[in-house]
């Protein structure tokens, strides 16, 4: 049973010839007057197509830094990084990824549907297609009836779902998510987790997911990258061999508990 | 994180009103504030003026100015109008020697006078029913009796001056015949009467003397009188009449020079005619022949005696000056241009107490008196401070209901085809303000975009923009208008000057607000745009501009108020007759305080309206802003 699950997991990680993300010895050093801060040290990470990889660790472990490096929002001090076989800058300019922030970052002057259409406008999609995609994605995140609302009329969870729909709008192969459910309550978060998994399976995206929450990481991921701070570095990579699709029963399973413990131990620096 | 903060804010707290009521809230507030503040403020600013008027004795009403001749001769009893308690009976300025007592209006002689109390002149001969001619010169003033009863003379001059054009004149308090340059006009042929208004068939010539008989008669010239109505009995002219004059209190013991007028306070600054027995004292004051240059100590006056005053203060002979005939020598030279006067007769040393100082002590037992007495009954404005407040010619803050009463006439003052019509003025100012606002907003937004995209430009220009706002607009306006006037653009003919001046102060808040707005974008929102590989243009149009809109509208509300001020100031240009600015200036200059207040209210309402218009625009353009 276990071997079968591992095989399934492996098959997901190894079937693509070319990894979506391949980073080697990535370091990020912030220089300030007070001195240098090593945000990330010699991180090496490879993500295969279709994987759901979580980056977990306490504050200051460099997980957001790593995500922003992949997104080319910042540039590494040293190391090599390829995204979708290109340099991060080329990948960004050819719109290879969709980014979801911790906050929904909705544009308050746009209605929900227009927020989802924003990237499509920027990428100059034809108007009819913009409309069609936005409606389809709102349906995917269960907000088909809220398109005409303004963001302030939505709850925090709904706003975050809009944000996810927006990231998916232009159909990027890669989804970078930076603690998207961090600000939500536990109940909403678990519902969002279910939904995210459903979307991931429907769309076959590659997801890199930053989180604080061990149970969230275990529940969602096919692989968990455990990071530790000062300096921020990758401590361990744990394969999650729980079968997909995952539902509430997975949260109750013994294996879920074991993996949770394993991640927790890794976070404490115990091998 | 920002979104959460906004989410919390959306939870409205505190007291709120239904939307329909709150829309009128600004107007309601103004009205309530006006009523609650208007009355106390009117009293606060008006009462001190009223008190000042009350205390100003020069503005008091004279009850009696001259001693009246008796109305009736009845044995030894004489009836006077308003007699002074301690009067002195005089005839031809000579005190009557018969003893008498005064009680009420009645003076009772204790014995038959040795000479008749009235001496009659010629009887005037009637020229017409109402015009009588006297053979010789009439005494001045003439004392006329009709059938043994005293007649009262008087004619009221017209309020307006004839100017060859005006045909209608208003008289008040007179009902008798109309006199033009001492000619009696005939009713019907020369003029028609309607209430107080006289309309002439022909406009009276420029500078003509127009009067209307207000008493029983009026003097036409030195020998003719005209009666208001044909006299009912024999007309007689008295040549000398017994009058009641004012005795000065103080004992004439041969040394006393100081006497006191009975009726105080003495308000008149005119010298009093003071008599010692039957001799009038010289009443004129004298100036020295020499200039008072601060060095000279010796001065020459016209008379050999008298009281010498420096700056109205009497000097003591032997102490501060010595006299040698008409030459006065001071121990110290009076200060340069000090007022030096000689009073050869008498000098009023204290107007409040009515103290009169005579140049020479009258002989013992002499009667010292003045031929007129004056009673100042009450302040001219009324008996109390409220009456005086109500009688103020101009109230700094009029009562709200007075202002309200002016609104009707104010709006009807000029017809709609006159550019001074108030509705047209409001529309003109509104148009000027909106142009100024539009121009200011365009320039302001453009500068803000420049500043955000080219940062060094902001550092180079912003100090100058700040400096531009410290230039008083009132100093700038004439210069700008002069420049524009030279190329033929005036406020009278174009909105451009108003727009420029209004925009000059309106653009500044737009720059500051829009720069802040363009920079207010959430850094994550910028990251997101970067992740989409958006172009700089897209960044501006899709994110920075929309994010700046709420800031822009807040600035625009400030700018609307500023633009209105600019437009009003611009319209005060001297040749302009359009807009509220002109109206305010005009009413301020002509002192119509109530109208100024109405205009201020209208301006305030216009300002509120313009700001509300900006708010409405915001609701249409930026419906996501919940404010």
UniProtKB/TrEMBL annotation, chain B:
Task: Say which domain of life the source belongs to.
Answer: Bacteria
PROSITE patterns xrefs: ABC_TM1 (PS50928)
InterPro entries assigned to the protein according to its UniProt record, in alphabetical order: MetI-like, MetI-like_sf
Which biological process terms from the Gene Ontology are attached to this UniProt entry?
transmembrane transport
Q: Which residues form the ABC transmembrane type-1 domain?
A: 422-618
Protein's name in the database? ABC transmembrane type-1 domain-containing protein
Q: Name one Pfam family in it.
A: BPD_transp_1
A cellular component term (GO) from this record? plasma membrane
Task: Tell me the keywords, alphabetical order.
Answer: Cell membrane, Membrane, Transmembrane, Transmembrane helix, Transport
Transmembrane stretches, start-end: 21-47, 425-452, 464-489, 495-515, 548-570, 596-617
Which family does the record claim for this protein?
Belongs to the binding-protein-dependent transport system permease family.
**PANTHER family registered for this protein in UniProt:** ABC TRANSPORTER PERMEASE PROTEIN MJ0413-RELATED, ALKANE SULFONATE ABC TRANSPORTER-RELATED, MEMBRANE SUBUNIT
């Amino acid at each position: 049973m276990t071997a079968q699950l591992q095989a399934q997991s492996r098959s997901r990680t190894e079937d693509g010839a070319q990894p979506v993300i391949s980073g080697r010895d990535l370091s990020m050093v912030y220089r300030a007057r007070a001195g240098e801060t090593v945000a990330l040290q010699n991180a090496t990470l490879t993500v295969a197509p279709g994987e759901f990889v979580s980056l977990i660790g306490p504050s200051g472990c460099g997980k957001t830094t790593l995500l922003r490096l992949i997104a080319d929002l910042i540039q590494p001090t040293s190391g090599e990084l390829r995204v979708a076989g290109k340099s991060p800058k080329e990948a960004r300019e050819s719109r290879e990824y969709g980014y979801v922030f911790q906050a929904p970052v909705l544009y308050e002057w746009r209605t929900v549907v227009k927020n989802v259409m924003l990237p499509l406008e920027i990428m100059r999609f034809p108007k009819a297609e913009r409309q069609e995609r936005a409606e389809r994605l709102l349906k995917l995140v269960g907000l088909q009836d809220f398109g005409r609302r303004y963001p302030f009329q939505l709850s925090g969870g709904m706003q975050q779902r809009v944000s996810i729909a927006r990231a998916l709008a232009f159909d990027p192969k890669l989804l970078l998510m930076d603690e998207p459910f961090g600000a939500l309550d536990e109940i909403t978060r678990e519902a969002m987790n279910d939904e995210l998994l459903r979307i991931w399976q429907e769309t076959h995206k590659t997801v890199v997911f930053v989180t604080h929450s061990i149970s969230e990481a275990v529940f969602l991921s096919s692989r968990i990258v455990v990071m530790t701070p000062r300096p921020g570095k990758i401590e361990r990579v744990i394969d999650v061999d729980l079968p997909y699709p995952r539902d509430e029963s997975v949260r109750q399973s013994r294996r879920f508990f074991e993996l949770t413990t394993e991640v927790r131990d890794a976070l404490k620096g115990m091998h | 994180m920002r979104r959460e903060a906004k989410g919390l804010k959306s939870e409205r707290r505190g007291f709120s009103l239904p939307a329909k009521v709150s829309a009128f809230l600004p107007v309601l507030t103004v009205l309530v504030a006006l009523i609650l503040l208007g009355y106390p403020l009117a009293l606060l600013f008006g009462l001190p003026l009223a008190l000042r008027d009350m205390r100003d004795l020069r503005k008091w009403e004279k009850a009696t100015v001259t001693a009246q001749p008796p109305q009736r001769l009845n044995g030894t009893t004489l009836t006077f109008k308003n007699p002074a308690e301690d009067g002195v009976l005089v005839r031809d300025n000579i005190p009557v020697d018969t003893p008498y007592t005064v009680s009420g209006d009645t003076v009772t002689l204790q014995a038959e006078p040795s000479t008749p109390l009235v001496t009659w002149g010629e009887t005037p001969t009637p020229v017409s029913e109402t015009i009588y001619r006297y053979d010789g010169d009439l005494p001045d003033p003439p004392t006329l009796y009709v059938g043994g009863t005293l007649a009262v003379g008087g004619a009221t001059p017209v309020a307006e001056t004839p100017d060859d054009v005006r045909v209608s004149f208003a008289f008040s308090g007179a009902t008798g015949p109309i006199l033009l340059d001492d000619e009696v006009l005939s009713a019907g042929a020369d003029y028609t009467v309607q209430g107080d208004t006289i309309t002439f068939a022909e406009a009276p010539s420029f500078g003509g003397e127009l009067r209307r008989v207000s008493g029983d008669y009026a003097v036409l010239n030195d020998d003719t009188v005209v009666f208001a109505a044909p006299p009912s009995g024999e007309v007689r002219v008295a040549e000398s009449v017994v009058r009641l004059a004012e005795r000065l209190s103080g004992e004439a013991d041969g040394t006393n020079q100081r006497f006191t007028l009975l009726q105080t306070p003495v308000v008149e600054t005119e010298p009093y005619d003071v008599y010692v027995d039957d001799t009038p004292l010289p009443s004129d004051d004298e100036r020295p022949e020499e200039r008072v240059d601060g060095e000279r100590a010796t001065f020459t006056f016209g008379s050999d005696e008298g009281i010498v005053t420096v700056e109205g203060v009497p000097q003591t002979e032997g102490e501060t000056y010595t006299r040698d005939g008409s030459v006065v020598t001071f121990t110290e030279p009076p200060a340069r241009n000090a007022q030096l006067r000689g009073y050869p007769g008498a000098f009023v040393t204290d107007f409040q107490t009515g103290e009169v100082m005579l140049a020479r002590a009258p002989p013992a037992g002499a009667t010292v008196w003045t031929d007129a007495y004056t009673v100042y009954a009450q302040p001219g404005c009324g008996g109390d401070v409220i009456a005086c407040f109500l009688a103020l010619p101009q109230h700094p803050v009029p009562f709200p209901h007075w202002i309200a009463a002016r609104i009707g006439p104010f709006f009807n003052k000029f017809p709609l085809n006159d550019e001074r019509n108030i509705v047209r003025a409001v529309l003109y100012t509104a148009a000027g303000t909106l142009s100024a606002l539009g121009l200011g907003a365009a320039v302001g937004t453009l500068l803000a975009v420049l500043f955000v995209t080219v940062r060094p430009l902001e550092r180079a220009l912003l100090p100058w923009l700040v400096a531009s706002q410290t230039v008083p607009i009132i100093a700038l306006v004439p210069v700008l208008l002069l420049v524009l006037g030279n190329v033929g653009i005036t406020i009278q003919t174009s909105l451009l000057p108003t727009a420029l001046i209004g925009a000059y102060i309106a653009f500044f808040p737009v720059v500051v607000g829009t720069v802040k707005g363009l920079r207010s974008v959430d850094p994550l929102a910028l990251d997101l745009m970067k992740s989409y590989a958006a172009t700089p243009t897209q960044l501006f149009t899709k994110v920075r501009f929309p994010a700046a809109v709420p800031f822009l509208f807040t600035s625009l509300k400030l700018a609307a108020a500023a633009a209105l001020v600019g437009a009003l100031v611009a319209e005060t240009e001297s040749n302009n007759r359009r807009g509220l600015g002109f109206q305010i200036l005009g009413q301020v200059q002509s002192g119509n305080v109530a109208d100024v207040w109405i205009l201020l209210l209208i301006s305030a309402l216009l300002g509120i309206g313009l700001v509300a218009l900006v708010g409405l625009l915001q609701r249409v353009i930026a419906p996501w802003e919940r404010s």
